[in-house]
């Protein structure tokens, strides 16, 4: 069998794609792998969706979650795509077993807020941006396959493509000042040149992915102390949903310990990021937003933006990590990463084509895993 360089393989469309399919798995599999890896390059995904759905015939399933508004957005987006492919979507109770409903257990499972890898399972959750959903085989945030992306995969994105997307989509979004949580744009930010540290909910599941052994609050205290001790000003912002008295006590203590160096703000994260020199976080979604603004990011935990940030494993070494992040910051590389994240690993819920590409990713992976060799 001749070797095929999938990196240079063109993705056929329409009748040309069907012709490759009928040649057999040997010819079709490299094309499917290429589509799975570079789904964003498929201009019209529906012909490939119809072909793969008809060939594999998986049963699509989705637990109904009344508490999750993102479930309704994913459901509505996929219903339109699957209806066009003559494929049903089975909505069921989260407690209802579905294993026996499909031939040979051939299911596609769309699971909310999961971090489990299994054949046919795809995990979705609210992404850092309000109109985006993460959609990933491994999970969300630092558990996702996006968190494992390597530099070579980012560099495969053509720079002009990434730059054009940033100008056409990212910059207008930033001008709107929207975020996942409501922001108070009326509060001014007078300072500049500070390190912005957005706090997370201390019981957030992603805190388990922190790189240091100390408890979350203790790690924050040490990071702030190490930077303030070197003369670096910091502005902290409490998570908008946090009511933990221990976090309030932590913030009061840091401001008292470092007067004139450490302050707390309730301003919009966008206003704070714009005025900051860099952003320091464990693995908050604000780190992703900071990359949109072109700021250096230091992450003290595993995050989906790992490849575009500087890793911090010791809270006391925050000054050195900050220096590394600022020296190594490459805005052009960051724009490539953002293009890949937003167009390949997430769903833009405003775009029907984005839902189509997500469905195509599922069906390509389904073909790779299930079709006999």
Automatic annotation (TrEMBL):
InterPro entries: Capsule_polysaccharide_synth (IPR007833). GO terms for biological process: polysaccharide biosynthetic process; polysaccharide transport. It comes from the Bacteria. Pfam families: Capsule_synth. This is Capsule polysaccharide biosynthesis protein. It comes from Muricoccus roseus.
